[in-house]
Design a protein that fits this description.
By secondary structure, this protein is mainly alpha-helical. The protein folds into two domains: 110 residues, Winged helix-like DNA-binding domain superfamily/Winged helix DNA-binding domain (Arc Repressor Mutant, subunit A, Orthogonal Bundle), CATH 1.10.10; 41 residues, no CATH class. Helix content is 52%, strand content 5%. It contains seven helices and two strands. Strands 1-2 form a two-stranded antiparallel sheet. Helix 1 crosses helix 5 and helix 3 packs across helix 4. The longest helix has 22 residues. The protein is extended, with a radius of gyration of 21 Å. The chain starts with 16 loop residues before the first helix and ends in a 26-residue tail after the last helix. 17% of the residues are buried.
Amino acid sequence: MNEPLPPRATSLATDELYYILNRLSRSMNRAADDIAWRHGITLAEFNVLLVLAEGVPLSSAQLARRAFVTPQSSHQVVSTLVSRSLIETVDHPTDGRVKLARLTDAGWEVLDGARAELRVMQARAVADLTAADGERLPVVLEALAETLQGGWFGDAEAAEAAASRRPLRGTLARTPDIRPLPTADRKKPT
């Protein structure tokens, strides 16, 4: 006999912070992808350029972690950006096996145009917030990201368990300490 299931408490997906942030992330990524396309770059390339605009030359491995791509994708993105003269590579000061990427003047030009559009989109996204909420939003989101970094809430045991479930990755993706170096001085199909 099939007995009816007991009633369950229901809630809206939009009651969940995870769902709201995922929706926001997807919307922002779609908008940023459109912006990148208008400037002849991919979203992954845009992310790499944004990270390099911090002014610190980074290795492909560091860029993979910071720009949210796999190490293989990072290598491909770096190669493409180098071939288009949007970034250049320089030798690491202490490790001859490592090349570090940094923006070129052409890379800065592309990024400046794309970033201007990105900032217009971001301003539109927060236009209905009070000035105080608009200023506080990045602080709150960054605090959430720091708290959830890796999803382990600072729990070393949980972090180790998560790492063990990722045998192909081997270690947790953490951005290493970055030390600034002295500086010297594919179009998408239409």
